Write a sequence for this structure.
C-alpha cells in the first residue's frame, strides 16, 4: 500500500506524514464521538472552524461543571439535563439535584434502606 507517490522521500518522512494524517483522522473521530457533530452546517473554512470552536467550548464547560460539582454522569447526560432546563432560571447545581446526581443530604448510619431485609 502506497501512502504517497513520491518515492524520493525517505521512509522516516513518509512515516511522519502518515502519523500526522492519522492524528487528523483521530481528531475528527473524537469530534463525532464527543462533540456530537454529525455534519458541518457551512462549507467555508470559517464556518467549520466556528462550529468546531463552539462544540469544543461547550464540551470544556460541561467538563468543568462535572468536575466542580463532582458528578458521575456522562457529558452527554449533563448536556441533556441542561438542554431541558435552558429556559428556566435555575442555578446549575440545582438542575442536577432534582435528577439525583447530587444528593441533598447524606444518608445517616441509622437510617434504614428500602431494600434492607
Amino acid at each position: 500500500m502506497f501512502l504517497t507517490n513520491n518515492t524520493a522521500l525517505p521512509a522516516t518522512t513518509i512515516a511522519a506524514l502518515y502519523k500526522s494524517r492519522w492524528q487528523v483522522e483521530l481528531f475528527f473521530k473524537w469530534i463525532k464521538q464527543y462533540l456530537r457533530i454529525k455534519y458541518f452546517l457551512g462549507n467555508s473554512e470559517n464556518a467549520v472552524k466556528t462550529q468546531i470552536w463552539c462544540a469544543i467550548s461547550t464540551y470544556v464547560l460541561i467538563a468543568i461543571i462535572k468536575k466542580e460539582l463532582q458528578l458521575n454522569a456522562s457529558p452527554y447526560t449533563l448536556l441533556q439535563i441542561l438542554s431541558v432546563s435552558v429556559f428556566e432560571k435555575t442555578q446549575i447545581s440545582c438542575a442536577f439535584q432534582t435528577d439525583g446526581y447530587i444528593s441533598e443530604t447524606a444518608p445517616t448510619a441509622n437510617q434504614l434502606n428500602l431494600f434492607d431485609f
Observations:
- The mean pLDDT is 77.
- The helical segments are 11-34, 45-68, 75-84, 92-97.
